[in-house]
Predict the structure of SAP domain-containing protein.
Amino acid sequence: MLDFNQEKLSIKYSGNVPHDYDISLVQVTFDFIYSVLKNENTIDNAIKDISKHYALSEEYLFDYFLENKFIIDKTNKNDFFELLKNYNTKSLKRMLKEHGLKTSGKREKIEKRIFDNNLIGNDYYISSKSKVFYKNKKRRIRIFNEYLSDYYYFIEFNEFYMDNYRKKEFNIPIDFINLHIRKSAEDKKHDSFILNNKIMAQHFLKTENHDKMLEYILACFCMNLNPIWKINDLKHHLGIDRYTYENLLLLKEKLSKNIIISTYYLIWDSFNFERLILSKYEGYLYLKEILNSKDLSKMNKELDNKFYGNNNLKIKKITQKTLFDF
């Protein structure tokens, strides 16, 4: 399992993310409507719950929902009767019966009786606009909550979704994570690159696509062995983290040693390293040791002594002449 104990990842900010960046009014509004329509919460209680969850004042939320017509006053009869379309006639009659009121008559009379007696229990009601909003937004909210909410900001995903909503649902979270991976590589941000690759690996683990998962686990393995973007800060570098170690052993059971090793060479070559802390062959030897369940701490100690903590370490440069030396 991916242990995620840091701030969410932003594609726009490398640090100092605005304090309210994790709050999107699209998400806030959706959660409010969902609470009322699907959880059958009252408007007052839904606002209290949303207020507490997002640390927003109840007064602010109420004014926002009212001003933007997500909730309406009872005096707006057209919207009120539109709301009653959510209920079948049997439910409306049960509502009348529970309040000791007459249940006979055509639906029009039943609806008028409910309106006259304010039986819904609020002075305000969810509008028809809210239902349309819920219908239009539920796919993107569900994708975000199911795959991305632990790691990324909804405000950025929402922008991405608007440009990519025509794609197949399966591809949307994958393409969004890949966007973060590419940005990390462009900016040469080692830690962000590793973390985004782990998130992608975790995604494919959930969908039981072990071949694709392997690619991203090996990307972490290769870049952590040869951390070219942090060459000037190797003193405390950890060559093989436990997440990568444990998942390579898992993938050995799901796939095979041969598949892992052959894929390793492809992934290593895909980086087109111009500088090497250790060679592709040395990386292969450490991969074999992992697949043979060698003690992780011993391997990292050896890596530190030979490479990352070695004050006499010489970084190898790849040229056309030395291309096949490593």
Summary: Residues 25-134 form one domain. Residues 320-326 have pLDDT under 50 and may be disordered. The CA atoms of residues 219 and 270 lie 9 Å apart. Strands lie at 71-73, 124-126, 275-276, 316-317.
